[in-house]
Each structure stands twice: as structure tokens, then as C-alpha cells.
């Protein structure tokens, strides 16, 4: 599992725990229901990274270096 996939799994678990009303802690940092937006933003960022890694490993290109399609 890649770092992006691992982080995505952690953020997804944190989001679910917060939605269940729990407090989630990563090291010294505590995330509570009040920080749901922050966790969701982090999850979206890691989702984008994991998707990019999956595209590249499937033979695609990075969105940063895509060839334009002029069809």
C-alpha cells in the first residue's frame, strides 16, 4: 500500500469516527467534530494523490503532464 493510500485510509477512518461523535488523535493532534471540515479537506487531498498514483501505475500520465486532446 502506498503512503497516499495509507493516509487516505486514515483520513477516511477519522472522518467516520468524527461523524460518529468520537475524538480521533494522530500523534499529539486531536481532531473532534469541530474539525470535520479540516479532516474532509485532508481526505480530499489524499484522495487526489491516491488517484494520481493509481493512474500513473495503470500506465496513465500525471495530470500535470497530460497531452491535450483536440478531438
SSE blueprint:
Elements: H1 3-19, E1 24-26, E2 29-31, H2 36-57
Antiparallel strand pairs: 1-2
Helix pairs in contact: 1-2
Can I get a quick summary?
The chain has helices at 3-19, 36-57; strands at 24-26, 29-31.
Distance, first to last CA: 36 Å
Helix segment tally: 2
Backbone shape: elongated
Q: Tell me the quaternary state.
A: single chain
Q: Low-confidence spans: pLDDT under 50, at least 5 residues?
A: none
Question: If you had to describe this structure to a student in words, what would you say it looks like?
Answer:
With about 70 residues, the protein is mainly α. The protein has one domain (about 5-60). About 55% of the residues lie in helices and about 10% in strands. The protein contains two helices and two strands. The chain has helices at about 5-20, 35-55, and strands spanning about 25, 30. The protein has a two-stranded antiparallel sheet with strand order 1-2. Strand 1 and strand 2 form a beta hairpin. Helix 1 (about 5-20) packs antiparallel against helix 2 (about 35-55). It is elongated. The termini are far apart.
Descriptors:
71 residues, mainly alpha, elongated, 8% strand, single chain, two-stranded antiparallel ribbon
Amino acid at each position: 500500500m502506498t503512503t497516499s493510500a495509507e493516509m487516505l485510509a486514515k483520513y477516511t477512518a477519522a472522518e467516520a469516527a468524527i461523524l460518529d461523535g468520537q475524538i480521533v488523535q494522530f500523534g499529539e493532534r486531536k481532531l473532534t467534530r469541530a474539525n470535520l471540515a479540516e479532516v474532509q479537506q485532508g481526505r480530499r487531498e489524499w484522495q487526489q494523490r491516491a488517484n494520481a498514483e493509481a493512474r500513473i501505475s495503470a500506465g496513465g500520465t500525471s495530470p500535470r503532464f497530460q497531452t491535450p486532446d483536440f478531438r
